[in-house]
Amino acid sequence: MFRYPLTLKISLCEIRLTDQFPSSIFHDGRKVLQSSHYLLIPITTLSFSFQINTNGFVATAQPTSESTYLGNMPPKFGIIAALLGDLDTSDGVGKVFFRQDSSPDVLTQAAHYINRAFPEDDEVSPTHAVVITWVNVATQGEPQSRGDGIEKKGNTFQLVIASLETASYAILLYPRDGMQFSSTPVQGSNVVMHAGFSKGSVRGFLFSSQGPYYRTTTDDEASVRALTEETNSGLRGIWVYEIGTSPYFTNVAPGEVTDLPTEATPQGPPEDYEEAANARRPVYNDGQQVQYPPYESEGEQIEVHPIQYQPHQPDNQEVLVVDDPDINVDGESTGESYQCNFPLLFSYNLGTCASNRNKCSQFADCRDYSSGYCCSCRPGFYGNGIQCLAEGKPQRMNGKVYGKVYVGNSPSPVEFTSNDLHSYIVVNDGRSYVAISDIPYTLGPSLQPLSALGGVIGWAFALEQPGFKNGFSIIGGEFTRQAEVTFLPGNEKLTIRQEFKGIDEHDHLVVSTTLEGRVPEVLHGSTVQIDPYSEIYQYSNNLITSSSTREYVVSSPDGNTDTRTFQWRQTITFQSCQHGESFRDMKPTQMLSVDQVFVMYDAGNNLIRFAMSNKIGDINGENPCFTGRHGCDTNAVCRPGQETQFTCQCAAGFNGDGRTCYDIDECGENPRICGSHAICNNQPGTFRCECEDGYQFGNDGQTCVEVKRPVDSCEDGTHNCDIPERAQCSYSGGSSYICSCLPGFIGDGRACQDIDECQPGRCHQDAVCYNTQGSFTCQCRPGYHGDGFYCSQERTKTQCENHRDSLQGSSEFGPRGPRPPVGQYIPTCDENGAYVPMQCHGSTGHCWCVDRNGREIPGTRSGPGSRPMCIDNGVVPPPVGPTTRPDVHPLPPGTHLLFAQSGRIEHIPLEGYVMKKGDAKAVLHLPKVIIGVAYDCVEKMVYWTEITSPSISKASIQGGEPIAVIRSDVDSPEGIAIDHLGRTMFWTDSMKDRIEVASLDGSQRRVIIDSDLVNPRAIITDPPNGNLYWADWNRDAPKIETSYMDGSNRRVLVKDDLGLPNGLTYDSQSSLLCWVDAGTHKMECTHPGHGDRRKIMEGLQYPFGITSFGKNIYYTDWRRDAVIAVDRHAGKELDEFQPQKRTKIYGIATAYAQCPSGKHTRAIHSI
């Protein structure tokens, strides 16, 4: 059954033994288990027999001898361990009571605890229950009385097995003062008691292995004591588990309410619980029921407050009930004979194909059966029907590694904190490659023997002999693999747990790996050799197991060799469809043969690498399809023929002769393949449909239907606020909005009246106040000069005049008056003292536009001989007093930001420096993984790099089809930059480790940098100065470099205190080169060549791309899935934009409405 972890705040409730089992505890059983260690409880409503044992457990099969299970969890037989230990009831004080109970009160109480423990699930109503209570049981061989007249207390706890038609539950109750000891003596030493569930041994074709199990406690006594203090049901000391049907226990699901608040409100459980419990509660005397006293509580019952919680759940959660045949076990009881029946619970969805077709892969067919439905992959594809992959197509797998690993005798572990794991599988020859990053040298050499870390990946995609299937063909891409490795002779143990989570949007498999334990040390510089080996996999219902003993040879740097051994055992659990015949036809055993094993620790890059070739079957054939020596294309499948004959066949979605295969563009061949309001994204070997903005997939998973979004009345003008000159409408979510009067007005927002601000003293005494709508002005009286707040008969100099006169005051005087020094800029003022909109430098000939305060408007500076078009600021009189809205100076219209997400390029318009987030939308939908984005301001073209089918393309933002510019001899193009003056483009290739340049049509291409590069990514141009800048995020030696545009004059600008410099930007106005670093989590800037360096911001999460515009810097962040605006001068974040599609955002660029002015200052020969 699918479960979602949940923690709720539930009011406090606890259990005390002195309450003699209050209403929150089930009344004890009516039958007494005698001193024999077990007894068959045949219950007529359940379909298997089980045995109650005085040692604190219920067994679903004949228990083995005590010496084999005391202190060992899990044991070799099926078990529900309430509190397993060496316990004694022969002293006449400890008792075990049991009963079958189907009374409404008990069943209602059981439902109460179950539904509280699983608040997000549909409520259940059990139909049968078995109640077992261990009362005051002592440790074996220890007297209950100490001889001083004081009785020593034993442990008291209770187990309730509640069942209904589709599920079974275990409810365990541990009173707070019922836990007197947490270990029992066994063969002269104390052994910790255990609680949990186990299926016991599972018999395979050749031998038996341990089946699934679930441990509630660990080998630490504190975990046993915690049973009375903690919970998974919201009630202290009460634990609830869904257990499916014994003896399977394959899908044990713990309760989901684990928190207990510190405060509580008194209240009791339902009154009928209290009354019924008081009526039935016995007092035990030598096992006889003597009387039923009234209930006397030591304290008030405490109210439990339910909290509404609605996590995401899969649609159509249903269960399949399969009745297990009766299992007859003979034995003696208290004079009665019963039969126990629990229904078997699977988590494969019920229903029909018509209502669940979207649960199958788009490359699968659905078939109905009498008991449900199953999915099966179509010819040319393989998998479990839920997930299907094209035969022969190479596969990628990505994931993270977590955990702690000790090396040798080291007392300190090496921790894994989200280390990257990447794998590549050449499916048609069964070879898999695995790499894990950030492995320190203290651990890396010692991980080399563990090629098994990637072994399950090889098994999943192993070459198949006829009649045999690899892992993915049987169970798909969602399963859990747990492996235990024991190294000999030191008995170091390592546990490997891997959660395979299916296929992501890029058709890559996703895996999460956890490592816990210790490995023997392998000295630094040593190599490890692993010879070919075979391993038998045993297949059963939703479970696959294997075990083996393997050898490896360690070669030390001094030339010595050492052959070592480890024992290997793994369990793979999954969910399968039980209705079809394909799973029943699966062979019970298959042999995986692994050869060409390669392991290496790359100390220079802190990488551990594994590679191996894998084949599934009996491996007796020599056909090239099985040996991998066939020569078929990597996107083709090898079809074996007679003896050594074979044919190559291109995988689905590809065309060719099998030796060479080409991708089929399904979107181009059938533009309507995705239906209305959908966009087709071609991908290698397949395609994906994506709904347009404003649409989403309907219930069938294929048709795009309009998204019914809440109406923003402020945007569409359907609000009832006052006119915009007097009031503001603010959207508050849903269909709500708020009306508020603007400054200078008063009212409720729906009706606003002007405030008369002309109160005495508001203006200067020699000025007149004029009230205006929402504001006021002050004007000096005739004969006076000033701004109205200060008036004088002498005219006050303006800002421009003060600026000009301050510079001229330091000038030299010549025969014709003051002469400024050569090279000095002097502002020009008009007849009213205001700045002239266009200012020019008298010596250099440069001109630029300014605002009314004399500040240069970015992007307007021109060279000698040309003049920018400037807006006349003097035609609007400057406002006096407060204004009704901020005074905004917009840049030339049309400037915006372009950024890349997987499958699209979006834009955000800029108003001034402010992102107009409400107007952001997609510019291009592209079936690619886009990394870098650049903009050509001359032809209004956007350029991008993509790595799905590595290439560089362009498209006009004013409309038109994408045009491929570079399609060959590129492996992983990432950064891209445009020289709008030289009409060239530059890009980095992180696989080929080089920088190239070409004309904007892709011609005249050549390599300009191809040495001393490891991971080049970001690249940027400075066309007027003829400079090129790039970043290399080589983890061992990250750096930022520069050169001329032809690659000459190369030099390192920054190399210290860098981590992962992902993004670069250059602002030609300030001559600042800025970058973001995902390793140091900083944004920094420098003037190239000056050697200065300053920090703009720190605490960034995972920045990737960066661009600049005026005073602002904009960057993308992978963790925040956002575009963030930063004020470069203030060093603070201004705004954040999160697109509707919440995926990683890659490159970002500024698309200027007008090209920055300038020309090459040196002869550039990049082409």
From TrEMBL:
GO molecular function: calcium ion binding; Wnt receptor activity; Wnt-protein binding
SMART domains the record matches: EGF, EGF_CA, G2F, LY, NIDO, TY
Thyroglobulin type-1 domain sequence ranges: 797-870
LDL-receptor class B repeat intervals: 940-982, 983-1025, 1026-1070
Cellular localization per UniProt: Secreted, Extracellular space, Extracellular matrix, Basement membrane
Disulphide bridges: 840-847
A GO BP annotation: canonical Wnt signaling pathway
Gene3D superfamilies cross-referenced by the UniProt entry: Green fluorescent protein, Laminin, Thyroglobulin type-1, TolB, C-terminal domain
All copies of domain NIDO, residue ranges: 82-246
Keyword rRNA processing listed: no
Organism this protein belongs to: Sander lucioperca
UniProt keyword Glycoprotein, yes or no: yes
One GO cellular component term noted in the UniProt record for this chain: plasma membrane
Protein name: Nidogen 1
